[in-house]
Each structure stands twice: as structure tokens, then as C-alpha cells.
Design goal:
Fructose-1,6-Bisphosphatase, Chain A, domain 1, metal-binding, five-stranded mixed β-sheet, 22% strand, 2 domains, single chain, inositol monophosphate 1-phosphatase activity, alpha+beta, D-Maltodextrin-Binding Protein, domain 2, binds D-MYO-inositol-1-phosphate
Length: 292
């Protein structure tokens, strides 16, 4: 049956707005939840509670849709072609634990494994990034006056992307910091920062993959590179970025069409010179990620 994407999009926003209060009023506690695979891969009771509330509401309204969520994912679960809500209840859990208000509910809908609707909502700043594939993406700031509230992305006409040495670049350490992945990350960061050969204007780590993608969509960050992300970190932000003229490709050189569950991503904002910049970035990556 035909899916009314606008209606689904509006419902996803409604839930995110409602559940946002649950996040801002919580005292972050890892309590029984603790860490997942190592001491820096944190999960709080709020992550789990928020996922439960959202998945229950989605299931009541759209019982035939599938669901994949960070807190209920089991190794081996596969994304299928069915319409699937993909949720990270708190993207930026480490920020949340430390009371750094750079946190988002990242809720996407994939159809045929293609990111189709994206909602990225920061409940602390009451800032929403949202988009529907083929219909543009927007920034809504609920705390501003009505006239200023909703803006189409990107926020400014994109200037040409000439070379990396004029870029502001986001990277993340993520929670996977072992062996080869650590080596590829640290040595690539060093190359980006170095005076000889590297040389970007600055490196940023916002601590939320979803918000990094939205910052690239807005045009506030030129490039974002990370390996180790999961489908729920990227599905929603991918739609927002794609609708703003941005591109997502594999973080390793070679694959221009990565899948939503591929786990290695290079995102570049819209603007003339996008392809050349991707090639330049790939030339700087020191080795290959082999995330499982
Ligand atoms: C993490 C954040 C972080 C990124 C990790 C993600 P979580 O999500 O987005 O910025 O570096 O790769 O897993 O664990 O806070 O939901």
C-alpha cells in the first residue's frame, strides 16, 4: 500500500518532541544498564526507557512496519526491505552522561533499505532537523519566534568546495578504539591537522553522529568522517544531508554508494567541487577501516 510519508514524518516529530522532556528531565544514570562492549560504550537507563516509549508508540500507529533500535538490536539482526523505523533514542550518550547538551533523538524510516524520512531532534536546544526524501530538509528552532522558526537547509548558499585546506572537518573517535581502527583514525587525524600535507581549518567532534550529519547538511561543517557508526546513528541524518545537497560515501576509498548499515562513512556538504573533495579526502586516509 502507498505510505503517506508526510503523515509518518509528522508523527515521528510529534513523538520525538514528547519524549524529549523525558531526556531533559532525567538524571543520567548508567545504573543497571552500564556499558555495552567496553568502558567507553555507555548506555543509560534513559536510553532504554526512551527506546521503549518510542517503539511502542510507533508500533501502535504503524503495526506493519519493522523496527530496529540501538538498545534492542541483537547481533545478526538484519535490515530488510520492509518499511523500518531505525532509532537511536539518545545519540550522544556520552555527552548526555556528562551533561553536555549535545544530544539527539535520531529517528529514521528506511524503505527498501533506503533512508527515506529523517528526524534528528535535540531536546535540550529544542532544535529539529527533518526531511523526507525528495522533499527537502529543514531546521526548526522551537525556541525562536515563529517567523524565524523553520528554515530550509542548507542555511546559506553553498560556496565551492575547493580543497581540504579550506574545510572545517568533523571526525569522531567513537567507542571502537582498538588495533587497526585506532591506527587508521589517529594517523588520519594527524594528517588532517598537520602543517605539511594535512591542513584543514579545524577538527571538530560534536559527539553525536546524527548531529554531525545535520551540521554538514546545514553547511556549518564541510566534511565528516567516521567508522564504527550503526544504522541508527546515520539513517535519519543521511536523509537530512541528502536533501540539502550533501553526499554520503564510504569512508574507505572506492565505494560511492554505501549502505545504511555499512558502518563507515564520509559525508560532504553540497557545493561545487564535492567529488574532487571526496577524492582528496580519500587520498589522505592512512589505511583501511575493517569494522565488523
Ligand atoms: C555514538 C555517537 C558518537 C559516535 C559513535 C556513535 P551513541 O552514538 O554518535 O558521536 O562517534 O560512533 O555510536 O552511542 O551515543 O548512541
Amino acid at each position: 500500500a502507498d505510505i503517506n510519508l508526510q503523515e509518518v514524518h509528522d508523527f515521528m516529530i510529534e513523538i520525538a518532541r514528547k519524549v524529549g522532556e523525558r531526556i531533559t528531565s532525567a538524571t543520567p544514570s548508567t545504573g543497571a544498564a552500564g556499558s555495552k562492549k567496553n568502558s567507553v560504550d555507555l548506555v543509560t537507563e534513559t536510553d532504554q526507557a526512551v527506546e521503549k516509549i518510542i517503539s511502542t508508540s510507533l508500533h501502535e500507529k504503524y503495526p506493519s512496519f519493522s523496527f530496529m533500535g540501538e538498545e534492542t538490536y541483537k547481533p545478526g539482526d538484519k535490515l530488510t526491505d520492509a518499511p523500518t523505523f531505525i532509532l537511536d533514542p539518545i545519540d550522544g550518550t556520552t555527552n548526555f552522561v556528562h551533561r553536555h547538551p549535545y544530544v539527539a533523538i535520531s529517528l529514521g524510516l528506511a524503505i527498501n533499505q533506503i533512508p527515506t524520512i529523517g528526524i534528528v531532534y535535540n531536546p535540550f536546544t529544542q532544535t529539529l532537523y527533518s526531511g523526507i526524501k525528495g522533499h527537502g530538509s529543514y531546521l526548526t528552532q522551537y525556541l525562536l519566534t515563529p517567523q524565524e522558526k523553520k528554515q530550509r537547509l542548507p542555511l546559506y548558499p553553498p560556496t565551492p568546495l575547493e580543497t581540504l585546506n579550506t574545510c572545517l572537518v568533523a571526525v569522531e573517535w567513537g567507542s571502537d578504539r582498538s588495533d587497526n581502527d585506532f591506527r587508521v583514525k589517529s594517523s588520519t587525524f594527524a594528517r588532517l591537522a598537520a602543517a605539511d600535507g594535512g591542513m584543514v581549518h579545524g577538527l571538530r567532534s560534536l559527539g553525536s553522529a546524527a548531529l554531525n550529519l545535520c551540521a554538514v547538511a546545514a553547511g556549518e561543517i564541510d566534511v565528516y568522517w567516521e567508522a564504527g557508526c550503526w544504522a541508527w546513528d546515520v539513517c535519519a541524518g543521511w536523509v537530512v544531508l541528502g536533501e540539502a545537497g550533501g553526499r554520503v560515501v564510504d569512508a574507505n576509498p572506492g565505494n560511492w554508494e554505501p549502505r545504511v548499515d555499512e558502518r563507515r562513512y564520509l559525508a560532504v556538504r553540497g557545493g561545487e567541487g564535492q567529488e574532487g573533495l571526496i577524492e582528496e579526502f580519500w587520498g589522505l586516509v592512512d589505511g583501511r577501516f575493517e569494522v565488523g
